[in-house]
Design goal:
The structure holds two protein chains of two kinds. Chain A is an alpha/beta fold. Chain A is built from 15 helices and twelve strands. Chain A has two domains: 44-171, Rossmann fold (3-Layer(aba) Sandwich); 187-322, Rossmann fold (3-Layer(aba) Sandwich). In chain A, the strands form three sheets. Chain A has a five-stranded parallel β-sheet. The longest helix of chain A has 38 residues, at 2-39. In chain A, 37% of the residues are buried. Residues 34-40 of chain A have low confidence and may be disordered. By secondary structure, chain B is mainly α. Chain B has one domain: ABC transporter involved in vitamin B12 uptake, BtuC, CATH 1.10.3470.10. In chain B, a hairpin with a 3-residue loop joins strand 1 (138-139) and strand 2. In chain B, helix 3 (45-79) runs parallel beside helix 8 (192-211) and helix 8 packs antiparallel against helix 11. Chain B starts with a helix and ends with a helix. Classes of the chains: A alpha/beta, B mainly alpha. The interface between A and B is large, with 48 and 50 residues. Chain A: Residues 62-321 form the Fe/B12 periplasmic-binding domain. Chain A: Pfam families: Peripla_BP_2. Chain A: Keywords: Coiled coil, Signal, Transport. Chain A: Residues 1-25 form the signal peptide.
């Protein structure tokens, strides 16, 4: 009985100490946010995010932390961030520039970001938004939310205070795209269709025009035509569709861009695919109009990657034509 | 006997030590002097931000969720007379997940909900899943059958997990990412709201369970003997299991599904302090807190700037311990 009472007394002491610490902490928390507010004296503007909420951001941010997937956009506008998230896959087109930028981990390390003292943070997941907003103004940009790279670059121009540079980039990209369309005239016939396909693990996917994998190049920049079924179910739908091998002929196109994302079972699945009668009977396969691309070359859809992918796709089509 | 008396104070000191280490751990290098200065209010704004907004809430969540899971495991192990029972057996974390995904699929703007809404839903979901498991394992003449609890728990968890997968397919890409991240455990997204949501539950239920320590002692002998000792078995079992579910569900709702803590902490506590629940209960809570806080600290220290999720660190420690226990009991 006495023992039990003594233990309970210990426990109540523990409780009181912890509650005391927590209460202290909460007070300090208010003081901390106040201290921060006082040191901000830069020119600010209001930005409306994709979810409708508004946030105050600096007109000319100097220290930006952003996701690795958007890094190309910033670099294209001449902005070098102070921190990027951990890359899931390395982007071959910005490898050199990315080396010099601090890695803030994935999931984002709150402390690392705080250490970098940014004045603008960009995220594409909402989960850490609240905590990150305590460090610096945070903007939520959903991934793949904007219709095409032009719209996306305009948003980034506004975010980074580089509207003029954004317009310049858009203009030169559209000029390049027009020139590219000229170059490939005659490679792909007017009534021929083009599709984008991926083998990931053991699963087979059809990809749309705004989901990476050079979709924006093939459908937007080069203005090639998708098969009707892909257009309705994928492009106007969720932008990606998992299909079975048997369904492949329904989604096949005259020209097929094809990529492999290696995971468990991929090698086996690829062998099965290439040996199957279904594959061998596809028009594209019979006419040698299947173009295999490396996943890291076409995975990213930022400005710099898209510029390189434009050249890559054009070269692939032209060199195939010569065979 | 006297060695056993030392255990609980030692565990408490151990916890304080881990707290001290954890306060000093993180990407941001603050030496101990700076930490103390910041704690008293004399640090820079950045240091205060890091310490009070990022590290401290997270540590408190780890402490209370660890204690909650341990207490829950303690109750379940005693009542089901299975020293290897774990709150995860009841399908609580899966139930919590289903509720969150169900809500997000019906209300796509759900991610904007006030901070505590999702944990609240997770709590309800976890509690419902556990209630389902109990309902299915209740045999009117015999009360709750321990063997049935395990099997039913596995079945219910599997079914709910399948349901969760189906529901999550209906989510938009962004919501799916949000849900996936939220479900794997939000210790690193811990804010003070979560701390205040969890603290009263765990504290209150801890006092309740401590009060019932004698009842737990009686129940551990089996229902017949317990009735002989004057315990209203059915009523007490129900109350204590409700407490166990509430403890586990509230912990899961703010920290995601973390296994092994509810299994190892009470098990180890029993080996250290004996069978009297007057000691086992506080020892379990302290061990659970030490374990989860320690795991979180290690997870933050090892792979900077990324981190290893606390649940994974616990599993790395827990799996070998579990195997060791199995090996010993096989002899």
């Amino acid at each position: 009985m006495w023992k039990k009472k003594r233990n309970i007394a210990w426990m109540i002491m523990v409780v009181l100490i912890l509650v005391f610490t927590a209460a202290c902490g909460n007070e300090k928390n208010n003081a901390a946010t106040e201290k921060q507010a006082k040191t901000e004296e830069k020119a600010m503007k209001t930005f409306t995010m994709a979810n409708g909420k508004k946030v105050e951001i600096p007109v000319h941010p100097k220290r930006v932390v952003m996701p690795y997937e958007f890094l190309g956009n910033a670099l294209a506008l001449g902005v070098k961030p102070v921190g990027v998230t951990q890359a899931v896959m390395e982007n071959p087109y910005i490898k050199e520039q990315a080396k010099e930028i601090e890695n803030v981990g994935n999931p984002i390390s709150l402390e690392k970001v705080a250490e970098l003292k940014p004045d603008l943070i960009i995220v594409y997941l909402e989960d850490q938004y609240k905590q990150l907003s305590k460090i610096a103004p945070t903007v939520f940009i959903p991934f793949g939310h904007y219709k095409d790279i032009q719209e996306e670059m305009r948003v980034f121009g506004e975010l980074l205070g580089k509207q003029k540079e954004a317009e310049q980039w858009i203009q030169q990209f559209e000029e390049k795209a027009a020139a590219a369309r000229e170059k490939i005239k005659g490679v792909i016939g007017k009534n021929e269709t083009v599709g984008i396909y991926k083998l990931q693990g053991k699963d087979f996917y059809v990809i749309g025009d705004n989901f990476g994998h050079a979709g924006q190049i093939i459908y937007n920049a080069l203005q090639l035509t998708p098969p009707e079924k892909i257009k309705q179910e994928v492009i106007q739908g969720p932008q990606w569709k998992l299909i079975s091998l048997e369904a492949l002929p329904d989604y096949a196109a005259d020209h097929m861009f094809w990529t492999v994302y290696k995971m468990d079972g991929t090698e086996q699945a690829e062998k099965e695919l290439k040996n199957s009668a279904i594959w061998k009977n596809l028009n594209a396969v019979k006419n040698h109009h299947v173009y295999e691309m490396k996943i890291e070359d076409i995975w990213f859809s930022d400005a710099i990657s898209l510029e390189h992918q434009l050249d890559l796709v054009v070269d692939t089509l032209l060199s195939a034509k010569q065979k | 006997m006297s060695r056993r008396r030392m255990v609980i104070p030692l565990l408490f000191l151990c916890l304080l030590a881990i707290v001290a280490i954890s306060l000093n751990t993180g990407v941001s290098r603050m030496n101990p002097m700076e930490v103390v200065k910041t704690l008293v209010g004399m640090g820079t704004a950045k240091q205060e931000l890091i310490l009070f907004e990022f590290r401290l809430p997270r540590m408190l969540i780890a402490i209370f969720a660890g204690a909650g899971l341990a207490l829950s495991g303690c109750i379940i192990q005693t009542i089901s007379r299975n020293p290897l029972a774990d709150p995860g057996l009841l399908g609580i974390s899966t139930g919590a997940g289903v509720m969150v995904v169900l809500y997000l699929s019906l209300f796509p703007t759900g991610a904007d909900a006030p901070a505590l809404f999702l944990p609240f839903l997770a709590f309800i979901g976890g509690a419902l899943a556990a209630a389902l498991v109990f309902a299915l394992s209740y045999e009117r003449q015999q009360g709750l059958l321990p063997g049935r609890i395990v099997l039913t728990g596995v079945a219910v968890a599997a079914g709910l997990s399948a349901l969760m997968t189906v529901l999550s397919l209906r989510l938009s890409r962004e919501l799916y990412q949000f849900a996936a991240v939220w479900l794997t455990g939000s210790i690193w997204g811990a804010t003070w709201d979560y701390v205040w949501a969890l603290l009263p539950w765990v504290m209150g239920l801890f006092l309740f369970v401590s009060y019932k320590a004698r009842v737990l002692d009686a129940l551990s002998f089996g229902e017949t003997i317990a009735t002989g000792l004057g315990v209203a078995v059915a009523k007490e079992q129900l109350q204590l299991l409700a407490a166990a579910v509430a403890l586990a569900a509230s912990s899961v709702s703010v920290s995601g599904g973390i296994g092994f803590v509810g299994l190892i902490a009470p098990h180890l506590a029993r080996r250290l302090v004996g069978a009297h629940h007057a000691h086992v209960v506080p020892a379990s809570a302290l061990l659970g807190a030490c374990l989860l806080l320690g795991a979180d600290t290690v997870g933050r220290a090892v792979l900077q700037p990324s981190e290893i999720h606390a649940g994974i660190v616990v599993a790395i420690v827990g799996a070998p311990y579990f195997l060791y226990v199995l090996a010993r009991s096989a002899r």
